[in-house]
Structure formats: C-alpha cells, structure tokens
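Box 3.1 A note on notation
Throughout this textbook, protein chains are presented in two layers. The first layer is the amino acid sequence; the second is a token string describing backbone geometry. Keep the layers aligned when reading.
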Amino acid sequence: MDRPAYTVYLFYGDDEFAIAEVINQLREKLGDPTTADMNTQRFSAVGLNLGALEEACAAMPFLAHRRLVVVDNVERLSQDKSWDGKRKERFFRLLNDLPESTAVVLIEYAELQSSKKEDNFKKRSPFYQWAEANPNKAYIRKCSSPKSSAFLHWLMKRCKSLGGEIEPTAAHLLAELVAEDLYLANQELTKLLDYVDRKRPIETNDVERLTPFHGQSDVFAMVDALGQRRGQEALQLLRRLLEDKDPKYAFAMIVRQFRLLLQAREALDLGLNTQQVLRVHPFVVDKVSAQARNFSLADLERIYHKLLTIDLATKTGQAYVEVELDNLIATLSN
C-alpha cells in the first residue's frame, strides 16, 4: 500500500538553482503549464499574511490532484518580532492540519559550507525541527551549492542531463570562468552545447572562444574606474552593466573579477607568477594584474568580504543586489 504523500517540503541551504529545479519538478506533476499556474501560489515570509496563506492551503485544486503553495525565505518569520506566541502556534497548526490535496514548500536559505554552520542551523531553525519531528508529513532536502571538485562533478553531470558531454579540461576552465555560479554555468553549458550541436564533447577551445570575455569588458571598465577613484564613472558603468545583464549574472562576474584581483594582488606582493596563480587566459592575467596595482591587499580583502555579505543578504531576501552594489561602489569611490 502506498504511503500518504508528503504535505510539507522543506528545502534549506544556499543553492537557489537546485531549489528552483525541484520546485519546477513538483509543478510539472500538477499537469500542463496552465494547470500548474492555476494551482500554484507563492508567498514571501516577509510581511506574511497568515490568513491568505491559510485560505490558499484550504482551497481545493482545480483540474489537478494537488495544489502547490510555496513560502519563500521562511527563516524571516522567526526573525519577526510578532513570531512568538499565537502567530507561531497558528503557523505550525496550519502545517499539522494540511489536507493531502495541498503541498506546502518551505524555502529556508542558510549558509551551510561547514558542518558547524549546518549544526547551528538545525539547532536554531524551528522549521527544520518541526519537519524532523514529523517525518510522515514532511520531506527535508538539503540544497547546498557545490564547491571545488563537487562543482566540477555537477558540471559534468549537468552537461549530460542537457544532452551532451564536456571534456574534463574544458569543465575546469568553465568552472573558473563562471566562478562556481550554477545559473551562469547552466546558461553557458546550454550555449556551448548548442554551438557543438551536441554531436561532440565541449572542448577547451570552445569555452575559450565563447565564454571568457562575455560581458567582461564592462566589468573591466568599471573596475578600472573604481581603482582610479573615478567614482561617478564607476557608478555609471555599474548601472549600465546591471541594465544590460541579468543582475545575478552581473553580480557573479563582479565577484569573479574581485576574486581574481585579490589573487593577483597576493601574487604580486609575494613575487609569484600571476599566470600560474590565476590560471586564466593571458589577456585576463594582464588586465587583472594591471588593475590589482590600483588596490591594496587590505582594500581587496574588504571588498571581497563585502561582496560575500551582499551575496548572502540577497539570497535570504534581506537586500537587493542592485542597491547594495550601488552603495558599495559609492562608498569605495569616496
């Protein structure tokens, strides 16, 4: 006899790409796209209207066997001053009493790059604790962004799922160029597979030809202006970059650039060969090395740390990447 379907799905971690994919898989089970749209509702935990959430969960599905209700950034609920007491009890009572015709997805963004951070998350998250205590009702899935060798494995696996192959050396190069960003990697893999028409593996030459300088000219120009303290010009270039590119794509390129600058500055200070340290195209090495001389190591460490803070804040819904980058550039230009 089949077990009852889960009514609550908790996806936690920092891998937005994996979370988006698994939600799409749940949507596909509702039927065609039109039917799925009619049976899917999405809420933000920021300023959540519990009454509206309760209505969505109690509604009967239309031309489908289930409804899908998604609550983004659920961790923000427990940060709300009104969370304690009746509001908290009401929320968990809702989860306990869900009909089988409703599936509620709770998305909890958290940084889990160490076992200590994951242990702390599990101890402080009331949603994880509830899900763990209700295994018959709740399904838990960790979604942590792959790093280093795990990212390379993901690239190879993703390439196969898209109907093609990529040579290991090409995968190494692509991983470096996209700064381990899953959205960027997926976009570039799709483009490269279309280029080779899925008739042969993606090679290093393909990656060099199609990927490394895509959008980089604007980033180089912005960093040049920033390094030379031309603040207004840097802001204008940043805004143009954000207008022309998806903000996540633009942000990933900016993070990558400052990571290279930090590595180059360290190499220069230690008298090391920047080509061997950076392991990117010689053109990029020359540009990055020249730009690194406009910054001190302390400046670059501070900027890179701030970018990582912005990354986490935007993923947890506490900030907008465009605003935070604008403020960062304005501050650095003074």
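The mean pLDDT is 87. The beta strands are 8-13, 40-44, 67-72, 102-109, 138-143.
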